[in-house]
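Pasting two entries for a bug report.
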Amino acid sequence: MKISIIFHSVCANNYLIAKIFYKNLKTKDQNVSLYRVADSDWTKQENTPSIAKENLKNMMNLSIATPAVMLESDLVVMGSPTYFGNVSAEIKAYMDSAAKYWIKAELAGKKLVAFTSVGNPQGGGDLCLQAIQTFGMYMGMTCVPVPTTLIPNENIHPFGIVHYSYSKYGEELDNKTQTAIEKFSKQILR
């Protein structure tokens, strides 16, 4: 299976999520690639903690995703920061660039998984995930839901993986997010 992980990250949180997906999906002997979307503002970030700067520097070495990446994939894992309950402008522009595939339903049947990083539970992360899934549904993709029972006694969004950063930028992800990605990765590949 050809798996492409495509993300936008400003503070490196989504980069860390993408790397954990990559690690977990790659261990299943899958053909997995990691891509970032174009963002000319990355180099202009101010007041970024040093650990986030290091992660962002590493992220810059990744290839930039083109719409053709989705066309060549069986499974797309897409992530965006949450801005006011929606995806970032960069992910929106990336999704819009795939409009040429809509007319002939060229992405139909491909699987789509969503993830996001958001400041706190009131930040609209679920809405961001829904925006990614709405894109997928209009493109004819099969959106893969996260079982709400993935982690017993934890609140899990069915629309995708949500990481609450609580204003921590590019630091190690919390155990709940890491565990959710590990368990969900196993289910994705069933």
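Entry 2 (this is the one that rendered wrong in the viewer):
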Amino acid sequence: MSNTRLVLILFPISVLLGVLWYSFSSSDANGHTEIENSTIYTPKPRFDSGWQVALIYIGSATCEACSMPGVSGNVERAKIAIQERSIEEGLMFSAIGVAIDWDAEEGLGHLRLSGAWDELVSGANWMNSAAYRYIWEKSYAPASTPSITVLARKVLITDGGPQVSEQRVLKQVVGVHQLNEWSESGFDHLPAVIPGS
């Protein structure tokens, strides 16, 4: 088979594969992708009594800082790093994405730029249920975007349902600069989840 014929056969196949990859990748309004296919968070849910680490990202599709290059990729890598550390320590993990957009669908689109999540809350601006719980009611997370708060919570599964007996902040990262610094450190500087360990 001649080289010309081989090129004529392989070129359309490679173009088709490229189009398929692009159409299934997460991209922003400008077609920019943030997540490399080798760094994809996969939820691994557990419903047990014990300590759970929760990473809570608060962002918005209308927040200019949240749309800066690298933000979505750093959020995805943070989920992966904290999940891996939690699993190594025998802890449960949950990644929670909160979009404070008025338009819930627009907010979900923003959160999906950072891949998969265990839980998504979007819409109602600063009064959505997760913003209310984590920012206004409990003051665990800052009223700022983009931000990541890492919580440790002690979960007890009872006949009446799950209960949280303890909850404390392990880490807060606010703004693009802090998020970049945390990423460059390998997402280090988390205290022990279980007191005394």
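Dev reply: Rendering is fixed now. As a check, the viewer should reflect this: The first strand starts at residue 50 and ends at 59.
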